[in-house]
Amino acid sequence: MAGSLRFKHHFLASLLVTITITTLKSVHTTTTTNTEFVKSSCTFTTYPRLCVASLLTQSSLIQTSHKLMAHAALNITLASAKATSAMMVRLSSSSRLKPREVSAMRDCVEELGDTLEELRKSIGEMGLLSGSNYEIYMSDIQTWVSAALTDENTCSDGFEGDDMNGKVKVLVRGRILVIAHLTSNALALINHFASIHG
To answer: 78-130: per-residue pLDDT in tens?
Structure first.
C-alpha cells in the first residue's frame, strides 16, 4: 500500500512538472511569436526602430493581428500627442517667451487639438471596421490620420526662423517630430492592414 501511494505521489509530481514545462514552453513560444509579429510588421513603416520600440510592450495584446497592431499604434500616437499638447500649454504660459513664440505655441496647441480629434475619431472607427461599411470606415481612418500628420507638420513649421528661442524651438520641434513619426508609422500600419483585408 505504501509503495502504491509513493508511486501515485511520484506520478502526480512528474505530471505536474511536465504540465508546467509544457505551459512555460507554450507561453515562451507565444511571446516569441507576438514579438516577431511586431518586428516584422514594423518593416512596413518609415520608422521601423521607433515602431518596434513603441509597440513591443503591446505585443501580448496585439498578438498576431494587423488590426490590433494598427489600433495600438493609434493609441500610442494619441497618448504622445496628448502629453506634448499638455507640455506646450504649460510652456506657452511662461513669461520668458517672446510674443512670437507664444503665438507659435498657441497655434501649435490648436493644431495638436485637431490631431487629437482626428486620432480619437480614427480609434473609434477602428472598432467599427467590418462588413459592408469596411471601405467607408477605412477611408475615413486613412483620411483622418493623414490630416493629423499634416497638422503636426503645420505646427512644426510655426517654429521656423531665427527669431525663435533655440531651446524652445528644439524642444517643441523634437516632440512634434516624434508624434509625426508615430503618426506616419500608424498610417503605414493602417494601410498595410487595409491592403491585407481589402
So the answer is: 999 999 999 988 888 877 778 888 888 889 999 999 999 999 999 999 988 87
Q: How far apart are CA 85 and CA 152, in angstroms?
A: 11
CA–CA distance, 105 with 113 (Å, rounded to integer): 12
Exposed, middle or buried by CB within 10 Å (0-12, 13-18, 19+), for 62? buried
- Burial status of residue 85 (CB atoms within 10 A of its CB: 0-12, 13-18, 19 or more): buried
Residue of 46, 126, 135 whose CA lies nearest to 78 = 126
Q: Are 158 and 185 in contact (CB under 8 A)?
A: no
As to burial, measured by CB atoms within 10 angstroms (0-12 exposed, 13-18 middle, 19+ buried), residue 189 is buried
Taking 3-state DSSP, the helix, strand and coil percentages for the chain, each rounded to the nearest 5, stand at 85, 0, 15
Overall pTM > 0.85: no
Distance of CA 37 to the CA centre of its chain: 15
In this prediction, the residues of the chain whose per-residue pLDDT falls under 50 are: 15, 21, 24, 26-29
